[in-house]
Amino acid sequence: MPEDSQEFISGGHLVAKALKAEGVDRIYTLCGGHIIDIYDGCVDEGIEVVDVRHEQVAAHAADGYARITGKPGCAVVTAGPGTTDAVTGVANAFRAESPMLLIGGQGARSQHKMGSLQDLPHVEMMSPISKFAATVPDTERAADLVSMAFRECYHGAPGPSFLEIPRDVLDAKVPVAKARVPQTGRYRASTRTAGDPEAVEKLADLLVHAEKPAVLLGSQVWTTRATESAVELVRTLNVPAYMNGAGRGTLPPGDPHHFQLSRRYAFAHADLIVIVGTPFDFRMGYGRRLSPDATVVQIDLDYRTVGKNRDVDLGIVGDAGMVLRAVTEASSGRLNGGAVKRKAWLDELRAAEQSAIEKRLPSLRSDASPIHPYRLVGEINEFLTADSIYIGDGGDIVTFSGQVVQPKSPGHWMDPGPLGTLGVGVPFVLAAKQARPDKEVVALFGDGAFSLTGWDFETLVRYNLPFVGIVGNNSSMNQIRYGQRAKYGEARERVGNTLGDVPYDKFAQMLGGYGEEVRDPAGIAPALRRARESGLPSLINVWVDPDAYAPGTMNQTMYK
Hints:
Layout: E1 8-10, H1 11-22, E2 26-29, H2 36-45, E3 48-51, H3 55-69, E4 73-77, H4 81-85, H5 87-96, E5 100-106, H6 122-126, E6 132-135, H7 142-153, E7 160-166, H8 167-171, E8 173-175, H9 197-209, E9 213-217, H10 219-223, H11 227-236, E10 241-243, H12 263-269, E11 272-276, E12 295-300, E13 314-317, H13 320-331, H14 343-364, H15 373-383, E14 388-393, H16 396-404, E15 413-414, H17 425-435, E16 440-446, H18 447-453, H19 457-462, E17 468-473, H20 478-488, H21 504-510, E18 514-518, H22 524-534, E19 538-543, H23 551-554
Parallel strand pairs: 2-3, 2-4, 4-5, 5-7, 6-7, 9-10, 9-11, 11-12, 12-13, 14-15, 14-16, 16-17, 17-19, 18-19
Antiparallel strand pairs: 1-8
Helix pairs in contact: 1-2, 1-7, 3-5, 3-17, 9-13, 11-13, 15-16, 15-22
């Protein structure tokens, strides 16, 4: 066939076709000369190009989009500093088990190792914090490598992949007939596995006969969309459930099996503890907070996570939803009244729960000024509806909220995850509101956390994405301040952690949003309502007591 009669396609357009095949409907990006042919391809494929002000925001937004939708997110950044700016977002997605693809530019192959503009060894930098990192070596392989990267995102527990694409690979055109363009639904298999049937039967037997069981529903319960299976198990078997990470909201507040504040008591006194989709990391005291006398079962997507840091009596590798459903089915007809006998155990935990609530009730109702953080997060909890997606971005103030704020629906809680990355708030708002415009988004920021990515508040205004934002402002990086105070005394508690008294309400107004200042605790609820009614991106600047610290902050082992 003569060359002039063939149909040709560029590398950037092949990338866009592969994104379309994966179901990606928008990319998050900050422009650069290396990557603009991808934009051109996205226009042709009907993929929205969402431009932000910092590449870290693009990567966090891709992570957040994956969490909300269940589809992989995608960020596209230029070479060199564009890619290094996105490293934190990829690392956060890696620890949080969030599937996303970061595409980075690279200098032309013809200039390899010559010192081209923004040339860096991106693949070597990204390999330790991604499930897959590679260079696209040839234009014909552009779509193929994108699809391969998405496939690797779902190997074991989900996570991020990285591709760098040299500029001449993106810009070059090749015959369509020579390029491999994987077809939707035909280049990766289902990853849903139900676990070892014998192990499932054993867990069913353990649950049927346990007198004091407890289950922790972690982030993988939401990742695998296992809400219904988890709820059915705890209700059928009458098991108290605790939730962390994205697993929060699996059971609604007020459900008789929903527990939050008695977890330590439960783990110290239970005879059977089932950990679902949560590693034994620092949040779990590396497994040491579980009773040594309890039978411990761990369910996880990743074989490497099961039994890491703490021995387990039974490990099951598989999809949380399929495993929990199989366990419930295996328990059918074998309860023999055992579930009924657990009423005393649930009553015992409910009493411990109530005791913890009463202990902090004075702070939750405090009329003090500066405002006690418990009062602020208590007001936020009352403000949330069943359609409110809650996002926490901060240190000490978000630690307060973790004990009080209860999402009303599954998939309505977002925090950075175990990397503890500050600055996820604004990009998570961007992703959540674009993915679910029908939902209200409520975000609580520490003033230090907001400062890291806050300029993309302008992006929210530009894209007309209303949300209710609250800054718990104590003019400090207060979680670190507490540690310095504990280690070095009051005389050295404010080294490197004190911020200016910034009126974030005025910052919001300057950028075209709604802003309001609150100093009186009685003004919190009305201000939140006005922000909701404004129909604009908003920041309510709430001045909180800098000398009040969350129990979780004071108990952190790094400060001891």
